[in-house]
Amino acid sequence: MSSFEEAETEETVTCLHLTFYHPGQGEKMMFRCLDFCRRQQLRADDTAKFGRDSSLCHYSLVDTRVSRIQFSLQFYRKLHSSEYAFEIKNLSKKTKLTVNQMELGYLNKIDLPWKCIICFGDYQILAEIQEGEAVDYFETHLHLAEAPILQERCLPSLQPIPENGISPSFPLGQGKSPTEIDENEL
Q1: Which of 33, 40, 51, 167 has its CB 3.0 to 4.6 Å from that of 57, i.e. a possible disulfide?
Q2: How do beta strands 102-104 and 109-111 pair?
Q3: What CA–CA distance (Å, rounded) separates 165 from 67?
Q4: Burial of 62 from C-beta contacts in 10 A (0-12 / 13-18 / 19+)
Q5: The whole model's pTM is what?
């Protein structure tokens, strides 16, 4: 047998991709302590903490409006399953955290959806989970967004689109209510 045939089977690694945005990132440089160049490996039993205190947090944000520990992400394996997931917990007493517009108060936690937007203050973080098989560790890969994440996503329009495809000339919500028109009247 060749060494290729005897080699260990490669495991894929679960990777959490995090894309950061803040409107003042150009002048305030609050992301200067984050490593956007490479993937970072963490042990499965580590809790990835995000916040202002670099001695307590793996990922430090240089901003006095961020809590010492803002939130944490815990990697875990679901009970009676081979599936891995992340749990997000708000660790800030002063700032609420939202995950896909679900508000988390202090010490509230939920499972992180496979793709979601995390917000606190003016911060927006797009989190995307890339599934893997490794048991002992996971990776994070940080990215920096040039534009607001909430505007980049294709969110459904709040204005109805008529069947004929022509938008009304007046914007809704300015004292006029939509009226139903029979298609034969057009």
Answers
A1: 51
A2: unpaired
A3: 48
A4: middle
A5: 0.75
Is 47 in contact with 73 (CB distance < 8 Å)? yes
Structure tokens, 172 = 């809704």
CA distance 98 to 101: 5
Return the exposure string of 138-176: e unless at least 16 CB atoms fall within 10 Å of the residue's CB, then b: bbbbbeeeeeebeeeeeeeeeeeeeeeeeeeeeeeeeee
Q: Which residue has the tokens 């937007």?
A: 117
Which tens digit of pLDDT belongs to each residue from 112-155?
999 999 999 999 999 999 998 888 999 999 999 999 998 654 44
Instruction: Identify the structural domains of the chain with CATH numbers, from first to last.
Output: 15-144 (2.60.200.20)
